[in-house]
Amino acid sequence: MHTGQLLGSGRTADVYALDGSWVLRRYRDRSDTTEELAVMSYVGAFGFPVPRIGPPAEGARPTDLVLQRLTGPTLAEALPAGRLGAAEAGALLARLLRELHAIPPRVSTNPEDCVLHLDLHPENVMLTAGGAVVIDWSSAAEGPPGLDRAMSALTLARIALDPALPAGADVRPLLAALLAELADDGGASAADLALARTRQRQNPHLTEAERGRLDEAVELVLDSSP
């Protein structure tokens, strides 16, 4: 099928423009997108902010997703540009996690489980004119909400410890703000962080350097918790 301009590339997928309304997300690391589509449709039906799902394009591959084309910066781009501060960004991430975890599980029969994004961090939140929209549901699963909170916090801590982080891009204030916002929900416990560390260590898309910072990242989360 014909694809337009390459809009961006991540660790696992490339995003191409199709037209002014739709984009094609093409994965390089998986066989199909059936589960991701199911999760997005499910949480979207509860009013959670996800991109609209478009009709399959002619000649599409099983690894393709046709999604609403969103306009606006990611939260990761908006922060250093001064469009919002760490406290506001932390509150936004916490609110999105809280609203997602209020959705009952789609598959699990455990009433304590909920839908988990498992990769909710500033690069996966788009700030559109209509509000924040959460993208990249490829890691979504179901389970206890504490694991999702721990995954978000651990990702921020890992980024904060990256020696290649540009000057002026300190993530620690955002991490502290997020943990403060999540404190009443249970925060990121040591047990949940241990599970999150194991999950991230097994992620084949992390570099060895990133895996090597995970233990220190866990400590940073615990030290930053109120």
TrEMBL record:
It holds the Pfam family APH. It comes from the Bacteria. InterPro entries: Aminoglycoside_PTrfase (IPR002575), Kinase-like_dom_sf (IPR011009). Residues 5-107, 112-165 form the Aminoglycoside phosphotransferase domain. This is Phosphotransferase.
